[in-house]
Structures are given as C-alpha cells and as structure tokens.
Amino acid sequence: EAQVTQNPRYLITVTGKKLTVTCSQNMNHEYMSWYRQDPGLGLRQIYYSMNVEVTDKGDVPEGYKVSRKEKRNFPLILESPSPNQTSLYFCASSLWGASTEAFFGQGTRLTVV
Amino acid sequence: EDQVTQSPEALRLQEGESSSLNCSYTVSGLRGLFWYRQDPGKGPEFLFTLYSAGEEKEKERLKATLTKKESFLHITAPKPEDSATYLCAADSGGGADGLTFGKGTHLIIQP
Lengths: 113, 111
Description:
The complex is a heterodimer.
Chain A: E1 4-7, E2 10-13, E3 19-25, E4 31-38, E5 42-51, E6 54-57, E7 65-66, E8 76-78, E9 87-94, E10 102-104, E11 108-112
Parallel strand pairs in A: 2-11
Antiparallel strand pairs in A: 1-3, 3-8, 4-5, 4-9, 5-6, 7-8, 9-10, 9-11
Chain B: E1 3-7, E2 10-14, E3 19-26, E4 30-38, E5 45-50, E6 56-59, E7 62-66, E8 70-75, E9 84-92, E10 99-101, E11 105-110
Parallel strand pairs in B: 2-11
Antiparallel strand pairs in B: 1-3, 3-8, 4-5, 4-9, 6-7, 7-8, 9-10, 9-11
C-alpha cells in the first residue's frame, strides 16, 4: 500500500529537549516536504527536498532542521523546541515537485511545555 | 507574496442541497491549483489538480473549475460522508517550491 508514515503520532516534550519526527515514504517519490498546521493559519511549509541531499527552506523554517540522506526518509529535527512550535505536523511526498499530487502522512501532534 | 483565500470558512448544508466552495488566489505564475479533503485527525487527501483557466475535473459528486483568479469546488447532492474540511492550494513559480494553502472550508452535511 502506498503510504507516508510519520512517527510518533503524538508527542509531549519540554522546552529545549531535542527531538526528531521521522517520515518515510514507500512510493519512490523524489519530492518530500514538511508542513505545520495551526488553527487560523492553515498549512504552512517548513522545509522541502527535491531529491537526496537537496533540501531548502519553506515559508516557516526557523527552529527546524531536516536531512535527506536516503530517498525514502525525510526526518524533521527540532534542536531546541519552544512552546511556539506546538502544532500539528504533516510530512508529504510527491513524484516530482510541488505540482504533482501530494500524499500526506497521518500527522504528528507536538506539544512543547 | 502568494495568497490563497477560501470562502466561506464554514458551511452547513442539508443532504442533497448543492453548493459551491470558493478559492481565490493571488500568485506569481500559477503552476497548479489543488483541492484536498481533510477529515478530523487525518492528513489531507488529494482530490484534484487544475493547471489552466477553463479546466474542469469531476469525481463523484464533486466538480472543480478554474478561472484566472479563482477556483470553485461544486458539490452536487451531497451526502453526510462528504462532511470534511476542503483545502485549496496553489503552486506558483515564485519563492519556495511548495504549496500555498488556504485556511479551508469546513463543510457539514446534515442528514
């Protein structure tokens, strides 16, 4: 089954404690991206990757890091989480670029206290 | 700056009552206009992509249309299972390579 898998689904952490949210896709897609979804603000892109070892900033990259060492995996790293990063996070993949159908993961609800 | 605005924010319809959702966009060089459906607690699910003004696409009770400034999602004779949040997104040639999303229309279909 074609899917994008994120882990964990729920996470509560404390300010400053480094964390990683994993994302994996099984469709051999070139393009992957991370979004955050906040009430009243909608979905906003954090980072994206056009291919292995190629990543770039989206609209709200501050406080986040990503890596793309393998085609299937695109982890999101919060080196020092802060309460304003409390949000619902989605990973997505598409065949190539943002102009092709995106498949989204189930989401990770992060709370930073 | 690219902008995507959806209206209304929320819409409550009776089963079988047809209506339309609006998505207006201001982007530099539209490469694609997307519609997604999002159910509570889940990630968005792809519905349609439209690439040029005048294009239309249909799927079951849904039809999406595109003009140079806006897109409509027409829902014909909706059923309760059509209840969801509908998201519109634009891919433009400017800025970061990614989708700019609207805030969504929360649609409720009452039996």
